[in-house]
Amino acid sequence: MNRATLWLETRQLLADWFVPVSILLVIVALTSGFAAYSAVATPDEPPEYDTVESWSTAVDFSHSATVTEPNELYSVGQQLDDQPRYYTEVMPVLDGDIQYSYQASSGEVDIETEITQLTRAVEDGSDGEVTYWRDEQHLDSEQASGLSPGETHTASFAVDVTEMEQTAVETAESLGSTAGTLETVVEVEIQMNGTIDGEPVEHTEQYELPLDVTSGTYTIEPPSETGHAEQETVAASTDWSDRMGGAVWVFVLLLFSVGSLGGLVAAKHTERLAPSAADRQAVEAKRERESLDEWISRGVLPPAVSERPRIDVASLTELVDVAIDCNRRVIDRENADEYVVVDDTVLYGFVPERSESETAHNQPPADEDNNTPTDTTDADTPVSTENSPSADDTPTDES
Questions:
Q1: Which of 8, 107, 176, 265 holds its CA 20 to 30 A away from the CA of 354?
Q2: Are 70 and 204 contained in the same domain?
Q3: 296-335: per-residue pLDDT in tens?
Q4: Do 202 and 300 belong together in one domain?
C-alpha cells in the first residue's frame, strides 16, 4: 500500500468516524487540561527529604600465626590462618593484617593507619568502668597517598603474646597492686583525608581488637561491625519546577489533542476531510488490484495487438473472470493506465478510476511559450453565409 492510498484511507476513516474521534479528542483535551492545571495550581507542600548513601568504607581484619616450636601436631614453619585459637607455647607470635578501602563515584584520598598495643587493668564500678593503669606500645603505622575508589590500603602488625603477658604481670607487680583485671587490646586508628565526589573529606575510624589468653591458648576478636557509610539528606522532588518537569507529557498531550481537534473540524468545515467519489473509487480499485495480483502481469502490448477490436468490462474482477475463461493473463499495461486481456482477435479492457491527486499529478504542464493562436475551425464544417449576399437578394432592374 503506497502513501497516497494510505492517506486516502485515513481521510475516509476520519470522515466516517468524525463524531466519535472528535468526542475522544475533546475528552483527552479536557483531561489533560485539568491535569496541567492541577500541576501548576497545586500549592507547594512542605519539602520532603530522602537519606541516600554518598560514599562508604570497608575494613577487613585477618590474622595468622606461624609454628616456631616442635610439637606432635604441626610442623615448624607452618602458618595457620584465621584460627579460632592459637597455642601460646608453639606459636607465640600473632600476625594481623588490615585492609581498608572506600567506594564512591570519584575521589582521591590519603590514608594513615596507626596500630597500638594497649594493656590495662580495669574494673567495673558503680559509675562505669574504672581503669587503674594502662600501657601503650606502638606496633606499626602505614600511609598511602592518592587512593582511588576501590583501591586497597593494607597495614600489618605482630604481637608476641608470651612477651605481652610477661610485661603485663611485671607492670602490675612494679605498682605493688593487683587491682583490676588485666586485658590487652590492639587499637587501630584509620584517618582518611582528601576529596570524595568533589567534596573535602576528613574522616577517622577507630577499632579495638581484644586479645584473650586462656589455658595456654589465645585468640583475637575482630569487631562485629566495620566500615562506615556516609549519608546525605537530599530534598525530594516536590516543588513547582519538579512538578512541571514531571507533567511535560500532560502539556504535550494537551497541545496534540487541541491541535488535532482544530485541524479535524477545519477540514470537515471546508469539505476537505472525506475523499471525493473519484478518490474512493481509486482506493477501491487499488484494493481490488492487490487482491487479484496473482492473475495480473505487467507488460507492453505490440501496436498491432493494441489495434484489435476492444470490449470494455465494468470492473477488474470481471476482467479477471474473462481471463480465467479464456485461459489468459490480465496485462497491466506499463505505457497506459489500463488492464487488458488479449484474446485471439479481441481485446478485453478495463480502465480504473484515478484519484484527483493522481490526476493532478499526471496532468501535463501547459505550454506557456506557445502563444500562437490556432484555427479551431473544422475543415468539414460548412461556413455560415448568413451575412453574405445571395443570388435572390441581388437587386433587379424593373424598368
A1: 265
A2: yes
A3: 999 988 888 888 999 999 888 998 999 999 999 999 988 8
A4: no
Specify whether 82 is located in the same domain as 207: yes
Residue with cell string 585459637 = 85
Please state, in angstroms and rounded to a whole number, the distance separating the CA atoms of residues 187 and 155. Answer: 13
Pairing status of strand 86-87 against strand 93-103:
unpaired
φ, ψ dihedrals at 70, nearest 5°: -65, 145
For residue 351, being part of any structural domain is answered with yes
CB 250 within 8 A of CB 35: yes
Residue 7 located in a structural domain:
no
Within-domain flag for 306:
yes
Residue 224: pLDDT band (50, 70, 90) is confident
Q: Quick one: 67 and 121 in the same domain?
A: yes
The count of structural domains within the chain is 3
Give dist(CA 173, CA 151) in Å, integer: 47
pTM exceeds 0.90: no
Residue 136 grid cell: 601503650
Q: Are residues 245 and 159 in the same domain?
A: no
Contact call for residues 156 and 96 (beta carbons, < 8 A): yes
Do both 208 and 108 map to the same domain?
Answer: yes
Distance CA 260, CA 262 (A): 5
Retrieve residue 276's grid coordinates.
Answer: 471525493
Quote the domain boundaries for residue 128. 52-235
271-276's contacts with Cβ under 8 Å and 24+ in sequence apart are 273/11, 273/14, 273/15, 273/18, 274/11, 274/12, 274/15, 275/8, 275/11, 275/12, 275/15, 275/355, 276/355, 276/356
Helix H or strand E segment including 357: helix 356-362
Give CA angle at 140 (138, 143), nearest 5°.
130
User: Are the C-beta atoms of 118 and 134 separated by less than 8 Å?
Assistant: yes
Q: Within this chain, do residues 254 and 284 fall inside the same structural domain, yes or no? A: no
Does 4 fall in a domain?
no
Element (H, E) at 158: strand 152-160
Asked whether the predicted pLDDT for residue 199 surpasses 60, the reply is yes
